[in-house]
Specification:
Helices cover about 70% and strands about 0% of the residues. The protein is mainly α and about 300 residues long. It comes from Limosilactobacillus mucosae LM1.
């Protein structure tokens, strides 16, 4: 059995209500205390924050890559028409390769920034969150990418090797839903980033003249603090719970929530985001997952 968290309608309402109340309280606190919270927590020398910044967005890429792997396996071994099997296999392979490359590009970009900061005796966490681009040789990037892809493929295919045709069909449906969930979360997050145009904490000058509260829409100006992209990506870790068995589902669900919170806190610590940025992003992404999880229960048998 795979799919979403099995909650009764009453429990879903309770969870939704409690989450909404917590969100409102935290955003109210952030409205009045964003600057104070950032000034208290910021530590540009944080190694933990730097690690989270460098590698923390893996769910958004690996969910796509996982879905590509499932498409490949379904095309090869599942209940798939021959005319569809070829394009589906190639498309799944391309998606998995591309998203693996995107993730490698990202963590190598942040890693290079951190190494450069250390070399220049600059605070290690001071990486540009909007354009983390690596300075490694192209051959190095390709080698890391291919090694990462091969290891990831071997692990996923080992997991899928004994799945029945019925299970593969179910996984394929969940993969489509998961891909749509990640895509929608990404589009909403990126659109709001551009629209809000909020300065990041580390972009503020000494007088904090550029600071605006989280309710202020500044328009497109190149600044992208609100909402947090890392927090969105990390919260999507919850989606992995859709792919595991019943006895593991709750652990993956809770683990996804915890991971989203940890990454959110790390973003405030390294000065990349205000408390309101990560709070709004976490609950907005959770809402998108909640909606898509509900659709899964309606549209996918045994979800």
């Amino acid at each position: 059995m795979t799919g979403g968290i099995d909650l009764s309608e009453e429990n879903q309402k309770k969870l939704f209500g409690i989450s909404a109340i917590i969100c409102i309280i935290l955003l109210t606190i952030a409205y009045f205390g964003d600057l104070a919270i950032s000034n208290t927590l910021i530590n540009y020398h944080s190694w933990v924050g730097t690690f989270c910044q460098t590698f923390g967005e893996f769910p958004v890429y690996l969910i796509f890559a996982l879905c590509g792997q499932i498409a490949m396996t379904y095309a090869w071994r599942g209940d798939c028409e021959k005319l569809l099997a070829g394009p589906l296999f190639v498309g799944g392979l391309a998606l998995s390769l591309w998203q693996s490359k995107q993730y490698v590009n990202e963590f190598l970009g942040y890693l290079y920034s951190a190494q450069t900061n250390l070399k220049n005796s600059t605070a290690i966490a001071m990486a540009n969150s909007d354009s983390a681009t690596g300075g490694y040789a192209g051959s190095t990037i390709i080698m890391v990418w291919l090694l990462f892809f091969v290891i990831f493929t071997l692990l996923v295919q080992w997991w899928l090797k004994n799945k029945t045709t019925k299970q593969l069909t179910r996984y394929m449906k969940i993969a489509i839903l998961a891909s749509l969930t990640v895509w929608f979360a990404l589009e909403v997050n990126l659109t709001l980033k551009d629209l809000w145009g909020r300065y990041r904490p580390y972009e503020l000058t000494s007088g904090n003249h550029e600071f605006t509260n989280w309710l202020t829409i500044n328009g497109v100006n190149g600044h992208k603090s609100f909402p947090s992209g890392h927090t969105m990506a990390a919260t999507l870790c919850i989606v992995f719970s859709w792919f595991v068995s019943n006895n593991k589902r709750k652990s993956f669900f809770i683990g996804g929530i915890v991971y989203g919170v940890v990454i959110a806190i790390s973003r405030v610590i390294v000065g990349a985001h205000f408390f309101s940025d990560v709070t709004f992003s976490f609950f907005l992404t959770a809402l998108i997952i909640f909606i898509m999880n509900g659709l899964g229960k309606k549209l996918i048998e045994d979800f």
